[in-house]
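Reminder to self: tokens first, then the designed residues, so the page reads top to bottom the way the pipeline ran.
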């Protein structure tokens, strides 16, 4: 498994960097396989990435199929909807046809929708589990990612690709989420993480390689991962990794797409 780290100065620079990375990955996928299957992350962190992607003229949108790595069990117009957030920032601006957008229906019965969505993935994406080209993920302060929370029994799921999740105390809404087998089958996982509040979870995952954290289990399961961090989220990494990440930022600012 290979891991890359890119450390950008600010959260907006993270959005720019992550958007350029997704653009390169999408162009590679379309060049190799004629299309790109891209799973978007929920939460606030990827919003600037989506805004930059929406303005990327080189993005091969006619060949991109969009999925979500998790969703809150709310209707799409609900302020907490991951689809709704991406629709406002990305789908409303990028030339993506409706038939290329495969949202998780948060308004549906969660258990039934998890089964339906897994069927959509298995129908549209080759592989068993389906092998998505790019999976974007965020990171919670407790080390959760997608809607895989610490201590959750769904972390032990080894057959199903999409499941319904009862939230832990303090987390709003039931969720529907990718499982570790599906995330691990992806060609690349891209973590987009900003802010000092995430620094400990980033360090425990990247340096400590703690398998108690769901993000640590994703790192153990996936083939290739890139972390796009701002300086604040990278604060607790060791000097060598931070230097590596800063050099990666400098290189990508000089690189054409
Ligand atoms: C969700 C996300 C979740 C998110 C992290 C970070 O639906 O909430 O998928 O895993 O990525 O909680 O959220 P922020 O980016 O808002 O900090």
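Designed residues (257 positions):
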């Amino acid at each position: 498994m290979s891991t890359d780290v890119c450390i950008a100065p600010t959260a907006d620079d993270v959005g720019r960097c992550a958007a350029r990375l997704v653009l390169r990955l999408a162009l590679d996928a379309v060049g190799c396989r004629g299309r790109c299957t891209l799973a978007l992350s929920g939460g606030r962190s990827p919003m600037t990435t989506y805004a930059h992607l929406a303005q990327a003229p080189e993005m091969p949108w006619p060949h991109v199929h969009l999925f979500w790595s998790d969703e809150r069990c709310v209707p799409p117009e609900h302020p907490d909807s991951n689809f709704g957030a991406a629709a406002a920032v990305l789908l409303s601006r990028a030339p993506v046809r409706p038939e290329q957008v495969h949202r998780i229906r948060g308004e549906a019965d969660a258990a039934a929708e998890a089964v339906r969505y897994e069927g959509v993935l298995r129908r549209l994406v080759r592989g068993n589990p389906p092998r998505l080209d790019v999976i974007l993920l965020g990171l919670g302060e407790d080390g959760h990612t997608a809607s895989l929370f610490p201590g959750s029994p769904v972390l032990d799921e080894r057959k199903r690709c999409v499941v319904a999740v009862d939230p832990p105390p303090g987390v709003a809404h039931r969720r529907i989420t990718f499982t570790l087998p599906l995330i691990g089958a992806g060609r690349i996982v891209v973590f987009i993480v900003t802010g000092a509040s995430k620094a400990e979870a980033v360090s425990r995952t990247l340096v400590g390689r703690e398998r108690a954290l769901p993000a640590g289990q994703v790192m153990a399961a996936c083939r290739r991962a890139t972390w796009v961090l701002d300086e604040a989220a990278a604060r607790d990494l060791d000097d060598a990794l931070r230097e590596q990440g800063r050099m990666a930022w400098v290189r990508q600012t000089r690189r054409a797409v």
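The CA atoms of residues 206 and 216 lie 8 Å apart.
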